[in-house]
TrEMBL record:
The keyword Isomerase does not apply. It is an enzyme of class 4 (lyase). This is 2-dehydro-3-deoxy-6-phosphogalactonate aldolase. Its EC number is 4.1.2.21. Homotrimer. Pfam families: Aldolase (PF01081). The keyword Lyase applies. One of its GO terms (molecular function) is 2-dehydro-3-deoxy-6-phosphogalactonate aldolase activity. Gene3D superfamilies: Aldolase class I. It comes from Pelagibacterium nitratireducens. Belongs to the KHG/KDPG aldolase family.
């Protein structure tokens, strides 16, 4: 089963990238984002792609420039996630045949992102907008566009976000923070997947 869950591994180091990725995959999470403000992020992405590239969608977050996109592509990443809506970054992403999930907050940003070629939209920070805001945006967005709530979404409120029309979630600290073992991340991931399946399946 493919789930609309992106694991955000901010702060992960290359020497733990494989064990953490394996724990996530075993729990049923098959999309992984390494934010570029993590230590040696391209080394982590390259290692993950070599080991799990055929089983998972692996890429980068906090992607802010066209150069970042090129570096992610060189490392083998297929997913580009940004905190903002930058048409040049989206264009470079699509030119490299990667998936583009820019961060948006307003209807203007949503439609600008889609015009630039975004594959999906990352509502960020979702906690500030709340489910009511997502519901209002979904009313005007094309129904085919996947909308992910990121920053404030988790097992305790998946149902509220789903009712508002969210199609998926980016999960950061609820899954991973620096210092957690692969076993601990796996336990968190399994609980998260159970909650997701209950609401979204």
């Amino acid at each position: 089963m493919s789930r609309n869950l992106i694991a955000i591994l901010r702060g992960i180091k290359p020497d733990e990238a494989l064990s953490i990725s394996q724990a996530l995959l075993e729990a049923g999470i098959t999309a992984i984002e390494v934010p570029l403000n993590s230590p040696q992020p391209f080394d982590s992405i390259a290692a993950m792609v070599r080991e799990f590239g055929s089983d998972a969608l692996i890429g980068a977050g906090t992607v802010l420039s066209e150069k970042d996109v090129a570096d992610v592509a060189r490392a083998g990443g297929k997913l580009i996630v940004s905190p903002n809506c930058d048409a040049a970054v989206i264009g470079a992403t699509k030119a490299a045949s990667l998936q583009s999930f820019p961060g948006v907050f307003t209807a203007t940003e949503c439609f600008a992102a889609l015009k630039a070629g975004a594959d999906g939209l990352k509502i960020f920070p979702a906690a500030i907008m709340g489910p009511a805001g997502v519901s209002a945006l979904k009313a005007v967005l094309p129904s085919s566009v996947p909308v992910y709530a990121v920053g404030g979404a988790g097992p305790d409120n998946f149902a509220q976000w789903r009712a508002a029309g969210a199609d998926g979630f980016g999960i950061g600290t609820a899954l991973y923070t620096p210092g957690l073992t692969a076993k601990e991340v796996g336990e968190r991931a399994r609980k998260l997947v159970l909650a997701y399946d209950e609401v979204m399946a």
